[in-house]
């Protein structure tokens, strides 16, 4: 992964550039910048940048020599690494001579260093310090890669660390808490709707005690390295250190920044833990899992290979099928897991997990690949929990709904993909806004008093405009809609990333143009239960010491939120699933980091493993049964199941079986079907693990019986003829 990450990054090698005195601005850069300017656009000046005074930083006072490295040459050099199919192993360079107090540890070879954890929050707020801050919302704890600001500048959740304007020698410091081998830095500018602020160059210093510091030097000149930084606020820029440094503390010292702007940045530090042969150094706890699974990021080819391996290992409980293709022709593969794969069993509910709707939100994809490996392995081992799930449930796992977007993000790399690249499909469509808006016609009909007598409160049809040949509907969206229509799904979760929260329908606000507004469904109690189940069994969400990811503290409300009360999403898959099918679907935001480094995947698996299994088991809550014809005992398809007090119905599958998710309580349930007399009965849902059986036998109406007899060419029985005559007389 790191081979791709380094090759395709906006790579900026350390160079000696005279970029003005500390605290000066770079002329010639005007907001808003949309692309990264070449390094050569930073013109050297006659006054070289000097290290902060009053610090023992190990630098010389002589003027630095100017080395110009052509960007073309750098790009060609890095592209050569693409020839290796796996991330290359790089030789650890010798540590440069450092002042007193520096560690002299043995040399060894190791792969490229992973992120220290600013973005993923493994680095706590207390580990971040700065020379100054404009406000609390722009404090050092906000200097994390990809952190997102609130809607208003000046609140507690601004989008970067920003030094005070009068701070002539600004710095941002990270305490790794133990000796660490630092190898690189990734920076961004300030995330803001209203301002443009980013650092254009910086120096790096290291320390073991936060008092004595030394700088990163260029190999050729021996002078302090000045690293070119950003030319827009969002594009991550990677700089590798000329020589890796072993220290406890690292400081970033901005030298120049955007003209008219402030010294603001977001960062991630690349660092490897240092081994201590004598075990004298306290080592941080390792992220890991005891499950022997494939913990790495899988591109399309690797994903397909892994799914095939799982299928070959567990052929009796797995089946791979495709529901369609992406715009670029990549198949949308689904792994089905059940004791009888390939067929719907009468009375057995269907459940699905969907991941990768946004291609750059990669954790859900890997969790589903891990889940299918885990369930296969545990089934073979005879695990009773997994065995019961596969025996009583038909599970469908779609790891990548947007494979085109994922490939874009994958080739950029986990730390360099930024916040949005790869989010959309190849056509630039956000798939979570691409489903038909069924909310608006339903709410308009409700306002007119037409629901449910004239307009149904369930299985709303697709609008005419949505079915036109020129409608802006992505092929991935069409494929998922047809998938929903083919299989009677009962429960689903849509796995996203970038936050730690579970959201539930409705996702669209009922008030037109409202940015956010509490908009519950008639099944609000069920959705809140489902959301709480996942949130309460997710380790990261239940960590009492965790800080908010970006600009909202969802832990105050149990880590769940109504989607529309968070931000309105017209055309979401959750709302569509609820209004067009029987399926209840929630969205799970799995991690602050949309594309976590693969070294963090074992811990993310442990954070979500129990939650993924427990959520699947919720399909047993409520009632279930079969609606049959009283005379023939055959199941009745498309019978409507209504619950008094809940203005949302479900329908039976083609065999007459149904599942109605309900929280514990007593309910009056009615089954009705065209040509049959309706039947109402009481069904009690308890706290015991269900579902509670609630079957129905319906009797045909005389009119329906007559139609069937006439269609078959049979004579009308005398009793039916007399009943029809009586009905006609009453009507007359």
From TrEMBL:
May be involved in cell-cell interactions. No carboxypeptidase activity was found yet. Keywords: Carboxypeptidase, Disulfide bond, Glycoprotein, Hydrolase, Metal-binding, Metalloprotease, Protease, Secreted, Signal, Zinc. It comes from Suricata suricatta. This is Probable carboxypeptidase X1. GO terms for biological process: proteolysis. Residues 89-99 have a biased composition (Low complexity). The keyword Ribonucleoprotein does not apply. The gene is CPXM1. One of its GO terms (cellular component) is extracellular space. Belongs to the peptidase M14 family. It is found in: Secreted.
